[in-house]
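Morning F.,

Quick status update on the modeling queue. The single chain you submitted on Monday has been processed. Sequence for confirmation:
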Amino acid sequence: MESLDAYYAFTDDSGTIVAGAGIAGDVLKCLAVSEEARSEGLLVPLVSRILSEHPAQNLKVFTKPEYQAVFESLGFHLLARAPLAILLENGRGLEQYCTYLRSFAREGRCGVVVMNANPFTLGHKYLLQQAASQVDHLFVIPVKEDLSHFPYAERLAMIKAGAPGDVTVLDGSDYVISAATFPTYFLKDLSDASVTQMYLDTDLYGRWIAPALGASVRFVGSEPFDALTNHYNRLIPNAVIIPRLDNISASSVRSALAAGHYREAAALCPDTTWPYLLAALVERALRLELDTPGKPGLVGPDGPGAHKDMDYNTMLSGIKALRPFWARMALAGSAEELRQLGIDAEAAMTAATGGVNTHRGAIFCMGLALYAVSRAFARDVEVPVNEHDMKIFLGEIAQELFCIQLKDSNLRITPSARGARQIALSGYKMLFEDWLPYYRKCSAEGPVGFSGASAQNIAAEGPVGFSGASAQKSATEKPTPSAELKLLLRIMSTLDDTCVVKRVGEERAQEVKREAKEGKDLYKRYAAEGISPGGAADMLALTIFIDSIIS
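Structure tokens below.
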């Protein structure tokens, strides 16, 4: 059984399923009728029921060629054919997409590149440059399916920003290399499934996509390691293979990001991709903070801590909602634009979490850091930015933001206070002089708890951090304190955390600092007392992010 939004079934008198069909998005999947019931005509009423409950959707279905007439009787029409499977739909989705494509058609020799760009690298840019030099006009179709580490919106933006000026970047669709064109669920083994999905995708491309654009050639990069991709390339009508640049691949970039190595990742990408690398590193930092077990009073994989209005999934929803804003903050043109992006990001966060503030502090400090890096780019400061430059830029930007917010040009750092505003105005002096060196020391000393698994997941294009069995395991086993947990306690012992002050008062907040310095076992105690060092959690994530981007 594949992942489905809903599953419909006929059962016999004993409750045994004799026929079933599922739907995932706009695709009918997992259709099956038991051998004993195949003479009863159950498939048509089963599919009719699904169609009646999804009348407005443009539904697609994969089935074996012998069932074509059955689905055509239900209003479906053929899109693509392979020896072992056919693809049909019951709406005008492909027709509408082809109408969209025809509006871009050009005279002369036209070519197409379909790319995932996860993310867009120097290799992708080279491919487009070489392809464009061989045709009168080149079209790029991004893979639309949102199953990659970088969301479709980011990949589309990266391609548009990095492509040569004479290249037309089109919208992606469900009809070019998507889950809708790669069926696997009804075939016997992976090798058969892979070949069949290749045939379907290339047949659909040759029947519909290429003619709509008037394209006579499709360019692909060489693939020296993946036999299936090589096979797919050979099936593409009129394909031209362009040798790839040595030692440059999107998977290498993702591996570098997983390890928190911005310099290594940026070296493989054009500068137009850098803001999206930074966005990925912000999300990595937030996920590492969230995925750290044993945090006193804070939400983590092992429980909600002192919180009754949020849990791990709530925090995760907040992180996902904020992802689109990080690259925009890195690209902001002014402090006022950055401030507005922060307001918009907070609105998106609360909408996703049902009104719960999961990351307001992170929006502020990460926004400052992202804008500081972009300011360094604008001033041609060496990339990645060093600690001295980052501290200066962070302090300058904080001053600008507070002047805009409070209309007060006389804000000054008070010697005794170390709240969020004062720390920002100092350029996060404690971060650079204490927390960051301590984090690097702890990271170099030994294991980092469960964080290693989180990093590996990025390279595999999966979600960062705990999920499923991993999260459950963390709740039952007591891991060696990670570098992240050690750093959190360090920050708690030095930070005047306004989140703690608001919950339990100034006097108890000072005791919290002393207890964190002593390294006491505070997990259950703080959860019971309602103590949640949210400010320290924000600084933990910020330190992780800063560690990944500075030299």
